[in-house]
């Protein structure tokens, strides 16, 4: 298609034929040109789209390099090199985008315009040419068909043929003109677009060359540094292989991991390492956790990035001891006021190291902080399910303040019972004494503390009934005779611990000889010689050589808002060095009873004294009887096998019941008629005592000799309050069993209702006297 087509209408027929053949050739060539150009435009579009996708992926790759450079911020060489390379590659990506934009303008846009405009005009001209050619052929045919004798038709046909030929010549010239224009323009359009495309590539590669020419010296210098790094890496590899070989040749059969503690560590971590922790759930599963002693706390982490979980908030308030009564080896127990945590080390040496570390941290905490870092009790949040929930916070705070002042106002309570330190903020509820924080910690080492909660109001009454002066008159009765020097607040901890152990565990300073029986108070008058009456009473036998019973001493914390104390099973509060035979322990919720064994006359006298004092609501006499060896679960064989706790129920005193329970009384021990304290409280209509016994785990399913359980008794007596408590407790028990929540206290509604009944029984007992059974005044 390199020639030009000309047509002037005067050519010979042979020339017309050649022109038509040339036109046909040109038309075929134009069609093929259109196909080629459309294909080239499509390929260009695909190339541009692929290039842009490449640039997008390249940009993402650049972001990855920058992220790696930021991650390597501690390595200046890596960070600088990666940043420089990513910047250079980013410039190349920008150059790529410029190249694709120019390609789109030069190839895609320019050639598409040529195809859509110029070739389309040629096609339109061809259509008009073909149409007028058909009209000319029709005019020729009509002109040939006109009869000779019809002159009028002959003239008309001749006229139409002449007009059609003129139009044909005009259209044919336009068509040829479009062909010649397209032939001349296609050269410039195609070459112009390709030349622009090649110049774009020239600029792209020139920019890349300039960019990498500038980067070349840096890359060469970096290559030299990498050679040096390779040499260093090879040397380090050889050294590590030598160390590895040396370690493999070493005998580790007798070597054991050593872990030492340092109470003066600069980072504040006294000791850290892995320990197994026994979970507090029903399955008692063991989990390996990372433990550490830091900031006067024992904490652990599941993962190193996790926030530490505090096991012991203040080490001064805990004790630690080995555990030999469980199946696993190397176990030890950390006991705090709120929980007991069983831990397991990997070896005996590590166990001893951890025990020593905790003990050293306790001593350091006392030495550094003294009484300044006492843990203040946060007010317990009220529950929305309890009555009088809104607007009582300020009243409760003021009441807590007055309660604390009231306890400190008891004779001797303004100073620590054991060392004389002023303003003590801790208390032993079952002893009814106030203590400083250091003596409280020593008491906790001698006995196993129970759980701490919000104190019931009658615990405050218990504290007010006793006090430091009363207890010291009992437990320090022989100090002057023996010339014992009582430790002072500034004495060494070892001296205080020895004195407290001798005072409460061994009871060396309690008055010997005849046991006083005066109702005026402890240590005033001696009782008459025990006669046959004393012989008629008996209690559990004490094993030979076992020390006398010590009332357990769960310490409780106090601040300006009042006291906290152990509110659950006090039977766990036993001294590890004290014989458990002095506590008449039954199975929890069971009906097990042991037969009474004969004991010496002094045990009978002290047991009878406790028995009578419990009914008379005389806590000092009860404390004195316990100090002289009375069994808290002493059984009066002559009075239906009644116990002091049953007598306290008959006497109608919540405080006496609480005192006996705090000192290990068995809430499920029953008399000869099969009635336990819960039975008697139900019969007598003592709602507050029923609430107390249910909270302490009394078995409400136990039946007496008539086959009646406490609920049946309450229903027969139509005592709505007690029926409500018993049914609620039974429903809560069934719910916990169905959900597998063994050992859990119950839902908030259950706890709120029992808390309200406890408050009412202590502060407004008259509101619960809606039922008065026959014979309730006397046992």
Automatic annotation (TrEMBL):
Keywords associated with the record: ANK repeat, Cell membrane, Coiled coil, Endosome, GTPase activation, Membrane, Metal-binding, Repeat, Zinc, Zinc-finger
PROSITE patterns, per the entry: ANK_REP_REGION, ANK_REPEAT, ARFGAP, PH_DOMAIN
UniProt-annotated stretches for the region Disordered: 370-390, 512-576
Major subcellular location class: membrane
Pfam assignment, any one: PH
Domain Arf-GAP span(s) in chain numbering: 401-511
Signal peptide residues on this chain, from the entry's feature table: none
Regulation acting on activity, per entry: GAP activity stimulated by phosphatidylinositol 4,5-bisphosphate (PIP2) and phosphatidic acid.
Compositional bias annotation for Basic and acidic residues: 370-379
Annotated coiled-coil segments of the chain: 115-142
Domain PH: from-to ranges: 268-363
Localization, UniProt: Cell membrane; Endosome membrane
Task of the protein: GTPase-activating protein for the ADP ribosylation factor family.
The protein, known as: Arf-GAP with coiled-coil, ANK repeat and PH domain-containing protein
Organism: Gekko japonicus (Schlegel's Japanese gecko)
Top-level taxonomy: Eukaryota, Metazoa, Chordata, Craniata, Vertebrata
